[in-house]
Amino acid sequence: MTEELTRGVPRPTGAGELFQLLRDGRPRTRADLAAVTGQARSTVAARVDLLLSSGLVAPAGEAASTGGRPPVTFAFNPRARAVLAVDLGATHARLAVTDLAGQVLVEHHQPLAIAEGPDVVLDRVARVGTELVREAGREPTDLVSVGVGLPGPVDHGTGRPTNPPIMPGWDDADVPGHLGRLLGVPVLVDNDVNVMALGEHASTYPEVDHLLFIKVATGIGAGIISDGQIRRGAQGAAGDLGHIAVPGGRDLPCRCGNTGCLEAVASGSAIATALRSEGLEVASSSEVVALVRAGNLAASRAVREAGRDIGGVLAACVSLLNPSLIVVGGVVAEAGEHLLAGIREVVYRRSLPLATQHLRIVTTRTKGRAGVLGASAMAAEHVLSSAAIDASLG
Amino acid sequence: MTEELTRGVPRPTGAGELFQLLRDGRPRTRADLAAVTGQARSTVAARVDLLLSSGLVAPAGEAASTGGRPPVTFAFNPRARAVLAVDLGATHARLAVTDLAGQVLVEHHQPLAIAEGPDVVLDRVARVGTELVREAGREPTDLVSVGVGLPGPVDHGTGRPTNPPIMPGWDDADVPGHLGRLLGVPVLVDNDVNVMALGEHASTYPEVDHLLFIKVATGIGAGIISDGQIRRGAQGAAGDLGHIAVPGGRDLPCRCGNTGCLEAVASGSAIATALRSEGLEVASSSEVVALVRAGNLAASRAVREAGRDIGGVLAACVSLLNPSLIVVGGVVAEAGEHLLAGIREVVYRRSLPLATQHLRIVTTRTKGRAGVLGASAMAAEHVLSSAAIDASLG
DNA sequence: CAACTTTTGATTGACCGTCGGCAGAACTCC
DNA sequence: GGAGTTCTGCCGACGGTCAATCAAAAGTTG
What we know:
The structure is a homodimer.
Chain A: H1 15-22, E1 28-29, H2 30-37, H3 41-54, E2 57-62, E3 72-76, E4 82-88, E5 92-98, E6 104-111, H4 118-135, E7 143-150, E8 154-155, E9 160-161, H5 175-183, E10 187-191, H6 192-203, E11 211-216, E12 220-226, E13 229-230, H7 262-266, H8 268-276, H9 285-293, H10 297-321, E14 325-329, H11 337-350, H12 353-356, E15 360-363, H13 370-384, H14 386-392
The structure holds a DNA duplex.
């Protein structure tokens, strides 16, 4: 008995809303758009002209004739502008200039200690970013926004980090203000794992509305997409999986002061520590991955065991959030199928059938690019939203 | 650098959107509304006239004069229509007729076995509901919608139960169709715990955007409100806390086939079972509560211990969702502070400070009414949304 | 190649909603 | 009680959207 609520309401579809229809990149004719929006051809034509003049929409050739003059089609033109995507980790930075659809134009990777503080780091980011825009063959004016992922909790509304544990000097730093002054465009900031979740969603699974992204690296964290949107919780701290107690897990001490946290048991550093106690020389997460790839059995077994521990916590997440997709990323996910096997084993055993029957668990296919892709998507969204388009077209 | 996106955009505030401003019940003058919406006085006046004619808004006396003619104020008139709220449990039904703000006009409580199947139960609901409308002194035409809470997973989009474990014969039953034909109004259906979460939110904590409602009764379940909305997940199965493994919990077998599930360890029936093994005669959750209230120490201890187990799982929920409020309901919550004490103890110990610093954990104050209040809110929302108002006045 | 079909762009008048001004009503202040 | 202030209902002006029309363009079909 759910009634059709939109019936009879002459929805005021401005140019911005018309643009949303075209954002999927599929070419459409004026007649298509008029049919979908219910507006008069003349109105649609005016809107299309406006969008054409902005460059955000471009002609996309002719469609097949149905007996008369073939109609011209139009499509979103992602290359009209560019955005800067910034993915900052504890010890390195990855920057990219992308088009408005997340296509990477140029990319840059460099060591950069976040501990040097916001002034040093953000100045560097702005300088390298400006250079990258030039390298991409774009004018400085092509840049319309910046997206930044930071390795710690961020209040997305203000763009300020809140009590970040591994970013000394960054607490409450005005990242959007600082970068915005240097680059002259709006700056969006979020926690790196949220940004990666967004990147996975935008680049690979746009049709999945309930997605959980898990980053397994030195630490462990998650980004939650529910009903198509990032969920950040009351303080922007949602998705902090690392300090959930592993059911049936070993009672190892964690840096948070508790024991048995997922991070203490199954993170990259925890795996490395465990392997060292077996006499192997492993210092970091990436060395664990290297060992696994080299065929070391102890390392494979440890990664798989970590997968089971992570699976224990993810099973709780599945029961709680009922996602249809879990994407596993972070360096440790590069260790092949071992991690995933452990995760799947426990999640499918410990969750109810209703929640798992349509659940897929996969590793990321973005090859370390989830962060920049998400930062790009976040920045692009800010500029391409219906309201933003309407505002920019006057 | 987050720009003001709405600037310059002449937002098309129809009568429906204007109404949303008045929904808080506070009286406002035409001038107030014009100032807030940015529309001309004449436009606002026309909208107000429309809303007045529908009865949904009514004059609310004059405001104090500021030196000239005193302005007339208007306010939402919740008593203009009525909704039927239905809260169905495994063995009893609670129905209420409420106004559009969730004020209960008449209430009815009766034993009703859900196992009798949808035809019998829904026919009964429609008959009692019609009678209640009369008892409330309302015309049948005053009834505008129905909200129903069911004790099992529901696809909220279609209103059909999906593989409910304790509702034989209800799988994929067309609840909205059946009730809608009998009562002639739209019917909204959801899982009972979601509905209770909504009830708690609407009736007591409307300003809290991130709320977790836990029902502790024969089973254990949760309703998640995130960014102000119920989150149901991909199959509508979100919030299914009952079968999450308790960290460090006993390995008791659960009806789901696994062991160590929260429900097997800490539900009302689990507590009763544990107490029976100590030689006490307890058959149900409510008898556990009665024992606690009578001052039985073993029962108090068992409830507190159950609280700790629940706290273990809730700590994971807090890390994952970062709510600002957890409301504990269900019969077991009526056992006083013992349950809450156990929950608080573990949640505050096992969660990170950022997530807990503004977290409140409370017991419901709705006295078993959370279900009908939520059903009422769900039904009212369907009729009072901006689009619905526009459609009904258009 | 001619006849027909369909799209495009431009123009037009009708319609509707919003805006701002104006006159009258209702109240306060002196 | 009069002057000033503020609210309310009414009216014409303005601007955007719509449907209709037309001529030109660019195809298809026989």
